[in-house]
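quick one: zinc ion bound model?
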Amino acid sequence: MRKRRNSGSVVVLTFFAVLIGAAVYLYNSAMFEREAPKIDIKHGAYWNLRSGLHLRLEDGSGIKSYKVVLQTAKGERELASSSYTTPSKKVEIEIKPPRGVVGAKEKQVKLIVQAQDGSKWNFFNGNTATKEFVFTIDRRRPKVNVLANSYKIERGGSALVVFKATDENIDQIYIKTSFGKVFHPTPFYKEGYFISLLAWPTNKRNFRAEVIATDLAGNKVKAYIPLYLKNRNYKVSNIKVSDRFLLGKVADLASEFDETADIQDPIKRFKAVNEDIRAKNEALIHKITSKVPDEMIDDFRINRMYPLKNGKVVASFGDHRYFYYKGKLISESYHMGLDLASKAMAEIRPQNGGEVVYADFNGLYGNMPIIHHGLGLYTLYGHCSSLAVSQGDEVASKQMIARTGKTGYALGDHLHFGVLVQGVEIRPQEWMDKKWIQLNITKVIQLAKKMIDKSE
Ligand SMILES: [Zn+2]
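yep, here:
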């Protein structure tokens, strides 16, 4: 008897243990998960009713069904719904109301999203979630008006534009070009007005720029900047490279950089210096000179650039250089500045003040200060023998900033003078020409201010 009773309770105990185990298993299994679906719409508080809203539903056991209802002053209307025999872990749909559903005078709409998952929880009904999204309707596109701009732009040169861009819920304002570069405008003179310098890189065949303004509701507008395009061809130079040069200057230079110090082959070494080290040095220059301040400016005045007294041009800007060794092409590069030379260790005194944004050694460019003159316009001074300024300094017009030299990739003492607009190298000669500045910068600003004052 004792034995029997014992085996009986073992059966009962085992039965309960299995039952509890099964319950725990089911409770923890994905089939019976208890989490409601996640509902998300990545969009701000404004909507133009034209651009689609991206709705995302997610759930561990999968979405079984969903419904999207639009609530307006006129009532409710179903915009989308679906149910799945095989629940899907992620459902993504675009929500767009049919035309005319929302009255012209309505200022707000509500979206009610309901979703049910495929869980067996809740007596096989699954978990449901409901989420409401309220949108303020903004159907009006931003307004963009180009007020004034330089008459023309040359390949490798620059231009100026002043425009008006307004919207109650403005999001982004930028200038898009045909070659992918985006220029960032600066708020100018009065609320709603902007100014920007533009640049046409020497290596791009064509130039086209338009102002783009977007608002928080998804409205977008474009305005073409009407610039007359003038092509300019840049010099092509074929340079013979001598053994003396490869084993002298290039070997010395290569020994200064970790990347090239161990290369023994003179030609490979030259190629690495002329291409890899140059690319690294230029990437730093482009990064530093791409910045444009956001603060509103009242004016932009610039003097004719003339950094080196009695400086004679010894190499031109934009020169495409091909290097040959014993008749064979071994490397190429572009010369993105103007080389000026006077006497050795001559004083460099720029005609325009500004902020020193860099003052250090930069590979092929040697000791190199860079000055920001505002509006994303930068000047660069390469190969200096000594620097008289430090990063962060504010320099005045005609202040001595450095002395010419031959540090970096330079054979004789000279100044490599570079001008950049938002990270793009441009022809320094334009900014060294008083007439060009008057016509393309000063007059454009004067005209724009007159128009702004008139319209207020
Ligand atoms: Zn140079």
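Residues 315, 335, 337, 339, 416 surround zinc ion (CB under 6 Å).
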